[in-house]
Write a structure and sequence with these properties.
Blueprint: E1 2-11, H1 15-31, E2 35-41, H2 46-52, H3 58-65, E3 69-74, H4 89-100, E4 104-110, H5 123-126, E5 130-136, E6 148-149, E7 154-155, H6 162-177, E8 182-187, H7 193-206, E9 213-218, H8 219-228, E10 235-238, H9 240-251, E11 261-265, E12 271-274, H10 291-304, H11 308-323, E13 326-327, E14 338-339, H12 342-355
Parallel strand pairs: 1-2, 1-3, 3-12, 5-10, 8-9, 8-10, 13-14
Antiparallel strand pairs: 4-5, 4-11, 6-7, 11-12
Helix pairs in contact: 1-10, 1-12, 6-7, 8-9, 10-11, 11-12
Bound molecules: nicotinamide-adenine-dinucleotide.
Length: 358
Amino acid sequence: MKTYKIALIKGDGIGPEIIDEAVKVLDAVASCSDFDFSYEEALMGGCAYDMTGDPLPQETINISLNSDAVLFGAIGGTKWDNLPREKRPESGLLRFRKELGVYANLRPAVVYDELVNASSLKPEIVRGVDLMVVRELIGGIYFGEPKGRDENKGWNTMVYTRPEIERIAHQAFKIAMTRSKRVCSIDKANVLDVSQLWRDIVTEVAKEYPEVELSHMYVDNAAMQLIRDPKQFDVMLTGNIFGDILSDEASMLSGSIGLLPSASVGAKIGVYEPIHGSAPDIAGQGIANPIATIASASMMLRYALGEIDAADKIDAAIKRALSEGYRTKDLAQFDAKEVCSTSEMGSIIANYAAKCKH
Ligand code: NAD
């Protein structure tokens, strides 16, 4: 039997509560598969600072690099907001992504039929939305040099190199091959030289994936089209800053931040995590929605471990729990038949995932 080594970083706030539920679901699918998991916990964020004086201890990097994948909860909280920047939980997370070289952020936005009313857009616009933003994560204007400011001027540099564009483009095309084989690359090539390079290289890479249909769209139009007709998109390929903005916009299509998973992947180990933060306002109350984290565990099975069947089982179990009317408090007003706690929702999904023949 194959044993996958998973690094668990629970973090702060609701992090421990939601990771426990994802582990419950992973163990449930493993119980009816030919693999299992061994977990090793590692510290990051405020809890790591409290115990070691560092929000990202070296041991956490070592444990992560020595695993098959990292399942991550969330970090941060007001308790640590006044620390010097490099000691803050969020700095630990940025450093962690850099250390692991995770250059691609994958953010699916799926609208569950049962929750079309939870979106701020009309049901007919969002019903059936199933798209994936593939965002470059460790380059572009957030990292480009030179950057700086004086009293009267501030400046940053948007720079991409050929290898950076090629590797993120390959990610997008490979993912499109597992979906409906369409990539829309987002840029601002009408104004920015860096975007014209992006467009040219993405077009070159596309030749290696003749089955995938490539289109290009300017970012301002993409922001509008996402709201006007989100179903036109399958894979959206973007640079760092455009993806930051568009993926948040896309996440609102689904209605609750507690539903959306993400993956950050690169050449080595991938990090699988919900898109939300540590939600200190609801921590410890047993009301956090664990679905985003459980869906992140499903992405881990699909993209890191190649256990597609098990990932499908989890996705089907989430859908079933929602279609049978189970809701955590954040979604209680949307056709709930039963409002359940974090742990009850985890158990319901685990139970379905262990049985699901999708
Ligand atoms: P947040 O995502 O933690 O919370 C925003 C709102 O959404 C809150 O009202 C919260 O209760 C709610 N919410 C979030 N997740 C939920 C869930 N699973 N179920 C139900 N409701 C949920 O964002 P914030 O309040 O801006 O940030 C809180 C802390 O988290 C900050 O310290 C911030 O830096 C940190 N943060 C961490 C990450 C990360 O670890 N990747 C990401 C974003 C923010």
